[in-house]
Amino acid sequence: MTTPAAPPPLSSVRLTAEAIKVLAHPLRSRLVGALRREGPSTATALAKTMGTNSGATSYHLRKLAEVGLVTEVGDRQGRRRLWAASADLTRYDVSDFADDEDADTALGWLERDWLQHFHEKFGAWLDARHRWPGSWQDAAGMSDRMIVVTDVQLRELQQRVSALVDSYATVGQGNPEAKRVAYYHVAYPLDLDKAPRRR
Questions:
Q1: Pairing state between β 12-14 and 89-91
Q2: Is 70 strand, coil or helix?
Q3: What are phi and psi of 24, to 5 degrees?
């Protein structure tokens, strides 16, 4: 019996200041998310999903392509362009944008947009979970912990959690019982009035 090949590592794109300014738009962030979840698509199909028109969708896809967040894939469907996300994940450090006020503002907007998106999607799960088996209700959900760490230790923890989550990205592939799951991990200081001195 042969051992199945390990899944390919997840690809990632690092946000530049220019890219984050382009991405900080309600439709553009949703377009990237839709292409990552559902795979390559045309502007027409995406417009139908997003409830907008194909002309506006095409424009925003071209803007995203200019900064490397989406790409036109080789196969066209007739005269229609087929678009794909350029990577599985987006990576950035908040400090990357500390010297660019516009990029820093764009990041703040984008993170709050992601927070609102989480609120909507997790709320939809809470409304629907009674229709799922108890085992899924128990496995999904949320929890929180309070830990005492330095910034270096917190960064290490975030990296280790990310690596563990990445290792599960396609572990259920081929199993009819497996479902796609959104997995969030968030960390923030509790004592907001006690910020340490800047180094």
A1: parallel
A2: strand
A3: -75, 70
Alpha helices in 3-150 (DSSP H): 17-23, 26-38, 43-50, 54-66, 101-128, 134-139
Neighbours of 28 (CB within 10 A): 20
Write down the number of H helices and E strands in the chain: 7, 4
What pTM was estimated for this model as a whole? 0.81
Cα separation of 108 and 97, whole Å?
11
Task: For the chain, give the longest Cα–Cα distance.
Answer: 59
Pair 187, 158: CB distance under 8 Å? yes
Tens of pLDDT, residue by residue over 55-106, are 999 999 999 999 999 999 866 555 678 999 999 888 999 999 999 999 999 9
Structure tokens at 161: 């959690």
Q: How far apart are CA 64 and CA 178, in angstroms?
A: 32
